[in-house]
UniProtKB/TrEMBL annotation:
<dbReference type="InterPro" id="IPR029058">
    <property type="entry name" value="AB_hydrolase_fold"/>
</dbReference>
<protein>
    <submittedName>
        <fullName>Prolyl oligopeptidase family serine peptidase</fullName>
    </submittedName>
</protein>
<feature type="domain" description="BD-FAE-like">
    <location>
        <begin position="16"/>
        <end position="146"/>
    </location>
</feature>
<dbReference type="InterPro" id="IPR049492">
    <property type="entry name" value="BD-FAE-like_dom"/>
</dbReference>
<keyword id="KW-0378">Hydrolase</keyword>
<dbReference type="InterPro" id="IPR050300">
    <property type="entry name" value="GDXG_lipolytic_enzyme"/>
</dbReference>
<dbReference type="Pfam" id="PF20434">
    <property type="entry name" value="BD-FAE"/>
</dbReference>
Length: 186
């Protein structure tokens, strides 16, 4: 990095991050990433040695219309290359077909990380009923798994909303998300 023409190191940068109040939020595939990041914090299965001195734990996670399982063919009706090595989900597992490599697909399947005996943060999920990119069934199944495993989870199915619908980014919804975060702030 360069500051006023001089080189800077990461140690030179001061942040205003409160490590006691970290929250994750993502939509669509980022919802998957946020969820898995939050639920694997104590598992040491996705971490690298970079910043290993810092905890990966978060206070809470918000998943908006996220993909929870890439192996369910019926839940991705509009993706022409669904599951193929060049699809987003195929690229995520190393340019492989997700159906031919379930051992790799399992690593990006949210439900595989939900276990009663493992600590996990509270989850807020929202999914549009009219979503034709990621089927609402994805979130419904993940929510059911969270409840079966006695996790703190709140779920909203949004009538008329499709994938990335403006409803998810308007004041009432953002206020609900803010209230959720405030509830779990330390």
């Amino acid at each position: 990095m360069i500051r006023n023409g001089e080189n800077m190191t990461l140690e030179d940068i001061q942040t205003k991050i409160d490590p006691e109040n970290i929250f994750l939020m993502g939509d669509s595939s980022s919802g998957n990433t946020a969820f898995i990041t939050a639920f694997t914090a104590d598992m040491n299965c996705m971490d690298t040695d970079v910043y290993k001195e810092y905890s990966c734990k978060v206070n809470a996670v918000v998943d908006l219309y996220g993909v929870s399982c890439v192996k369910i063919k019926e839940d991705f009706p509009t993706t022409p290359n669904q599951g193929e090595p060049d699809s987003p989900e195929g690229l995520e597992i190393g340019s492989k077909n997700v159906y031919e490599h379930p051992e790799l697909s399992d690593q990006i399947t949210c439900m595989n990380y939900v276990k009663k005996e493992l600590p996990s943060p509270p989850v807020l999920m929202m999914h549009g009923i009219a979503d034709d990119t990621v089927a609402p069934n994805q979130s419904i199944q993940l929510y059911k798994k969270l409840k079966e495993e006695e996790k703190d989870a709140t779920f909203y199915l949004v009538e008329g909303a499709d994938h990335g619908h403006p409803y998810f980014w308007c004041e009432p919804t953002l206020s609900l998300i803010e209230q959720f975060f405030k509830k779990y702030m330390k």
